[in-house]
Amino acid sequence: MTATPNLPTPLQPVRSSRAKFNWKALQPYLLVSPQTIVLLLFLVLPIAAIITVSFWNFNGYSMIPGFTLVNYITVFTSKVTVATYLNTFKFTIVVWLICLLISYPVAYFLSFHVKTSKWQTILFLICTVPFLTSNIIRMISWIPFLGREGLLNQALMGLNLTDKPIEMFLFSDFSVILAMVHLYALFMVAPIFNSMMRIDRALVSAAEDAGASPFQIQKEVILPLSASGIAIGTIFIITLVMGEFATVRLMGGGQVASVGNLIKNQIGSLQYPLAAANAVILLIITLILVSAILRVVDIRKEL
Amino acid sequence: MEQKKRPLSYYLLAGFFGLFILFLYGPMSAVFILSLQGPEGNLTFPMKGFGFTWMQSVFEEQRVGNFVDSFWRSLALGLIVMVLTVVFSIMSGMAFRSRFKGSNLIFYLTISSLIVPSILISLGIAVVFNLLGLQNAWYTSALGAHLTWTIPFAFLIMLGIFGRFNPAYEEASRDLGASDTTTFWQIVFPLIASSVIGVALLSFTLSYDEFTRTSLASGDTNTLPLEIFGMTTNVTSPALYALGTLTTIFSFALIGLTLLILSYLANHQKKPSRG
Fold this sequence. Notes:
The structure holds 2 protein chains of 2 kinds. By secondary structure, chain A is mostly helical. Chain A has one domain: MetI-like (MetI-like fold), CATH 1.10.3720. Chain A contains 14 helices and 2 strands; from the N terminus they run αββααααααααααααα. Chain A has helices at 18-53, 70-77, 79-113, 117-128, 135-140, 143-146, 151-158, 173-197, 201-209, 214-225, 227-242, 246-252, 259-268, 272-296, and strands at residues 57-58, 63-64. Chain A has a two-stranded antiparallel ribbon. In chain A, helix 8 (173-197) packs across helix 12 and helix 13 packs antiparallel against helix 14 (272-296). Chain A is globular. Chain A starts with 17 loop residues before the first helix and ends in a 7-residue tail after the last helix. Chain B is mainly alpha-helical. Chain B has a domain at 65-234: MetI-like (MetI-like fold), CATH 1.10.3720. In chain B, helix 7 (168-175) packs antiparallel against helix 8 (180-208). The longest helix of chain B is centred in the last third of the chain and has 30 residues, at 239-268. Chains A and B meet through helix 1, helix 3, helix 4, helix 5 and helix 6 of A and helix 1, helix 3, helix 4, helix 5 and helix 6 of B.
């Protein structure tokens, strides 16, 4: 990533005296130091530790410093583990696609059909409020709908579409995907809404005047101009879903596998080096996906 | 804008938007309703009786966990995270108004904290504490984990705020002989105050509801989300819903309070016109 972000325009330093100039030069570094120290201690150091430990040995109850590739070999040679990775990709792609299909029309409605900015703010806030409440509670809230005796089964049985309750609504891929879309859709809606709000309305009018059909306006004007928002939303969904384990554990009821869940289970049995190797692979995959997106779409103008 | 007849697409999209809102709020409202059942209620409809039995049970000693303690823990942690995040991000926001050597590096370091999957942060902090022989605790390891999640959001918002900020007011203040400290508290802070309150609410709720980054780094005592998660595996009574309802009401109350403060500020602080 060699691109420079659009940062606020620099203020000219005042060179009134040498002492003052030194202080002015030092000031930004003092100001960013707390944030930088926190990130070094709790982001950089932990990731360095994970990478180191992923090459260590494990003797059944503790980790032994050393250099071995056995953890990585275990990951790649285990059919179950590889299947778990594929399953995680499947979740990521499906959740991403559904979130996109929901978020694009929602953001379009908010930014182009709602005319006053007061109502845009109110409706956007209504979308945002659930995302400020507990994720765990929002997962639990599907139980009355999807459970064995949930509303969905009651309705199906009431309509005589099935004579015994369908178990697969809860504790299946279906319920995991549904809950993830429910949890993360806003991470797609917000950036798309943000970039659609910046589209110059005159462009749409010009396209209309030039005789473009509504579909052509979407395809030629609005979609390309909201691509950066879609990209940011995509990055969010990928990073959120790839490392996910709470939803998988709770909504999958032990029937559904994901890499996050795998790591969590390995920690549970104190297999730190193996968990670390999985975490490193997960990080590399995520970074590859994110940098691929950054190559295709220029998101700098959103920052 | 001329008044046009609303096209069909307006009604279709409005309907879709309505369904989306229903999708967001429907399940939650079912939980609210079911938490108000009588003593023989269970996890699904139809509702059995009506009462506050399950609400009360949340405050009683539970076999499966102690929610009152974990609530206070999450509240304290959320407040600490909020204060640190607000202070640190204002400082960084001020620093990023001038371009300094290494600013790009720090920018990407901060953004990468959002991009790294949460489970890595949690695992990494657990490994570091393990290697150093330190005990995980909510006020050390979990605090650090939360800051890696709240700081990037706050930082990005602050960049936006200061990007739109007119330096003329500060220059005027300095020309009149005010010190940097005076200028900050008298001029800059009042102008960014309402955004700072928004950042504070966001940091608090992100911390209060955080799960994955805390999951491996909380030590012996649980934060509220971890306690609720543990409860889901062994509680099959509407007490689960009652707890969910209460924490959601708490979140709603916070959002409401913030909106009230913001509208109060908007009314009582006539914004000077931007020059």
